[in-house]
Design brief:
This protein has 169 residues and is an alpha+beta fold. It has a domain at 37-137: SH3 type barrels (Roll), CATH 2.30.30. It is 18% helix and 38% strand. It has helices at residues 2-23, 130-137; strands at 37-42, 45-50, 60-68, 73-75, 84-87, 93-100, 104-108, 114-115, 117-120, 124-126, 148-152, 155-160, 165-168. The strands form 4 sheets. It has a 5-stranded antiparallel β-sheet with strand order 9-7-6-3-10, with no helix packed on it. It has a 3-stranded mixed β-sheet with strand order 1-2-8, with no helix packed on it. β6 (93-100) and β7 (104-108) form a beta hairpin. The longest helix is centred in the N-terminal third of the chain and has 22 residues, at 2-23. 20% of the residues are buried.
Length: 169
């Protein structure tokens, strides 16, 4: 009977010890996926981004609204060797959070602060400069160079560029 009481007390003590040990355990963290949000601090600035997007090595804040000059690929890192994570649509606005290494821009959705990826520096322009940039980028008509040849003495023949005929002068 004494052994039974001791056995019961030992089993109760072991049960309590197991409960206390297991109660101190935390649930395991969910597995990290590409869509898991993470926070990185670069040059004193906290950046929130998906796990698939790499944190930059350097960061200079810009926080301006830009417009895309073409359908640019948004990359997971600030170089062309990274993966494409999405695309900027031509002429659509986006937020430039900052400039990073290799003169790339860290970008976010319009009026958002979550880093979605990186685009080359020339992929966009500040919104207030967009119209002027497009006007200055249009091809300008070239003045046709007149073609003339000597035909002897003081005479020469020149080609009329509009009609492609030759005129003696």
């Amino acid at each position: 009977m004494i052994f039974t009481r001791i056995a019961v007390k030992i089993s109760i003590a072991l049960t309590l010890l197991a409960v206390l040990t297991l109660s101190a355990c935390k649930a395991p963290l969910p597995p990290m996926t590409d869509d898991t949000l993470v926070t990185s601090e670069v040059d004193g600035v906290k950046l929130t981004h998906r796990h698939a997007v790499h944190a930059p090595k350097t960061f200079t804040p810009v926080n301006e609204t830009y417009r895309a000059l073409y359908n640019a690929s948004v990359m997971s890192g600030p170089d062309f060797g990274s993966k494409v994570v999405r695309y900027l649509e031509n002429s659509k606005p986006f937020t430039v959070l900052g400039e990073v290494e290799n003169h790339w821009l860290a970008v976010a959705e319009p009026d958002q602060q979550e880093l979605i990826g990186y685009v080359p520096y020339k992929a966009g322009v500040k919104t207030d400069l967009y119209d002027a940039t497009l006007r200055s980028d249009r091809p300008r008509p070239r003045k046709a160079k007149q073609v003339c040849v000597d035909v002897g003495g003081q005479s020469k023949a020149c080609r009329n560029n509009d009609t492609a005929t030759w005129i003696l002068e």
